[in-house]
Amino acid sequence: MSGNKWKVTYFNGRGRAESTRIILTEAEVLFEDVRISKEQWDAMKQSTPTHTLPILELDDGTVLSQSPAILRFLGRKFNMYSDDLMEQYRIDLVMNIIDDLVDKKLIPALFEKDPVLKAEKMKKVEADDLPGYMKLLTNELKAGGNGFFVGTKLSIADVKVFTVLENISSNFPETMAKCNDLREFKERIASRPKIADWIKGRPETWF
């Protein structure tokens, strides 16, 4: 196991930090999982590189921000990206599909504060939006052809999709139940020994 002691700072949730946590876990990198309150974030926000969370602090004190950039950094460092230009494109494509789904559809519905509006938004996402995104992801998974989205080994795209499928399973179980390929993919990733141990020991959170 690596002797590095890194630090992941985020709110008490899976959210945009969970992919980073899982990649570090899979790579056997020791890290401190720092979970902060909104009040703590308000106090430290201006001191962070881009005023966003998560941030990843390396063992030499370097602080990285912006989750897509962090994931690509980790992918290159821990051989979860690719040296092949077309495979890099396909990894980026899958991650961009996930970003569209999360930013444009899931977050506005899940974080709606008005309960009536939230119910309406959740219903619309499940009926109108998720089927198309799940089909896109299923097609990309099948195009990968080896049980992974790209190539023959775990990539940052696989991890990012997995974390969002966890969210979909919790909030839209009927949709997840209809998507056999994605459900089986999620179960395969969750059963990898290091990831399974992480899931078993992490805090229970709603997002």
From TrEMBL:
GO biological process, one term: glutathione metabolic process
PROSITE patterns cross-referenced by the UniProt entry: GST_CTER (PS50405), GST_NTER (PS50404)
Domain GST C-terminal per the UniProt entry, residue ranges: 84-207
Membrane-traversing stretches: none
Gene3D superfamilies: 1.20.1050.10, Glutaredoxin (3.40.30.10)
GO molecular function: glutathione transferase activity
Pfam families membership: GST_C_3, GST_N
All copies of domain GST N-terminal, residue ranges: 4-82
Domain of life: Eukaryota
Protein name: S-crystallin SL11
